[in-house]
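Good morning,

Attaching, inline, the C-alpha cells for the sequence recovery test we're adding to the shared suite. The designed sequence is right after.
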C-alpha cells in the first residue's frame, strides 16, 4: 500500500486527512519496524564478532577443514571469499558442536543476553532455536518472495530475499538456513546453491546418511541429524563443482575478483603457537 500524502484522504475511508487520522499511528509502527530491523542487523554482526573471539581459535582451526572438506584449513583460511567466510561462520555459530557439546549461539545467549536491548533480545530469542542449515528446492517465486520446499522432508516455506531468486532456476536447490526476520523468513546469511546438473544423488546420499545416523542414535530427530551432518551437503557441492571442472572454492579460482585478505578470518589467526 502506498502511503498517502499528509493532506490526502486517509486510506481507511474515514474522510479525514491522513495527518488527522492514521499518520501518527503509522509513524509509530514504522519506527517499531525499523528498530526491529536494526536489532536483527546488530545480532548478525555481533554473532560474527563473538565467534571471532580468540578463545574459540582452537575450535575454529578444527571446524574449518571439517566444513570445507580440507579445501580450507587454518593455514589458508584468509583466502576464503567474503561469502564463503560468512557461510562458514554461520555454520560455526549455529551448528558446530564445541568440546562440551554446546553451540556458540547458546553461549552467546548466556553471556550477552542481559546486555542487549529489548528488540535485540527479541531477535535473539527468535534466532536461538533456528533450524540447522539445509537444502531447499526452489518451486516458484514472485519478485523477492521465494517458494521453497525442503529437499529432504518436503515441508514448504515462503522466504523473502532482497535479491530475489538471483540465478537460481526453478527445481534447483538452495543451501541455506531459514531464520525469522520481522514477520517473515529470510536466509541467515549468503545462500549457496546446487545447479540442476550438480544436484545428482544428493537426496539419496542424505537419506542413507540419516539411516546410518539413526542406527547409532535411535532416538535422534531429523533436526538432530541435520545439525550434525548438514556439512555433507557442502561436501556434495564441492565434489560436484570438481566434476563440472569448476573451482570448488574461491582460493582455487584464478579469475576470482576479490584478492584482498579477509580481515574477519585473519583475526582468527591469533591461535597460540
Amino acid at each position: 500500500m502506498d502511503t498517502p500524502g499528509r493532506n490526502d484522504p486517509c486510506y481507511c475511508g474515514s474522510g479525514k486527512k491522513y495527518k488527522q487520522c492514521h499518520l501518527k499511528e503509522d509513524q509509530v509502527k514504522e519506527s517499531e519496524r525499523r528498530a526491529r530491523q536494526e536489532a536483527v542487523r546488530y545480532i548478525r554482526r555481533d554473532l560474527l564478532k563473538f565467534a571471532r573471539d580468540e578463545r574459540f581459535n582452537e575450535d575454529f582451526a578444527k571446524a574449518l577443514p571439517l566444513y570445507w572438506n580440507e579445501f580450507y584449513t587454518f593455514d589458508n583460511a584468509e583466502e576464503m571469499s567474503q561469502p564463503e567466510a560468512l557461510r562458514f561462520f554461520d555454520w560455526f555459530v549455529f551448528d558446530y558442536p564445541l568440546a562440551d557439546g554446546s553451540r556458540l549461539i547458546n553461549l552467546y545467549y548466556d553471556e550477552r543476553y542481559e546486555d542487549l536491548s529489548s528488540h535485540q533480545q527479541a531477535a535473539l530469542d527468535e534466532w536461538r532455536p533456528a533450524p540447522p542449515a539445509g537444502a531447499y528446492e526452489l518451486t516458484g517465486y514472485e519478485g523477492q518472495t521465494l517458494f521453497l520446499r525442503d529437499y529432504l522432508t518436503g515441508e514448504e516455506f515462503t522466504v523473502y530475499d532482497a535479491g530475489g531468486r538471483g540465478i537460481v532456476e526453478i527445481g534447483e536447490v538452495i543451501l541455506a538456513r531459514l531464520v525469522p526476520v520481522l514477520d517473515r523468513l529470510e536466509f541467515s546469511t549468503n545462500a549457496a546453491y546446487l545447479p540442476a546438473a550438480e544436484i545428482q544423488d544428493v537426496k539419496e546420499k542424505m537419506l542413507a546418511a540419516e539411516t546410518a545416523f539413526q542406527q547409532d542414535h535411535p532416538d535422534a530427530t531429523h533436526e538432530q541429524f541435520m545439525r550434525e551432518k548438514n556439512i555433507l551437503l557442502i561436501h556434495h557441492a564441492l565434489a560436484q563443482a570438481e566434476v563440472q571442472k569448476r573451482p570448488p572454492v574461491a582460493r582455487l579460482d584464478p579469475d576470482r575478483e576479490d584478492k584482498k585478505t579477509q580481515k574477519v578470518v585473519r583475526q582468527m589467526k591469533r591461535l597460540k603457537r
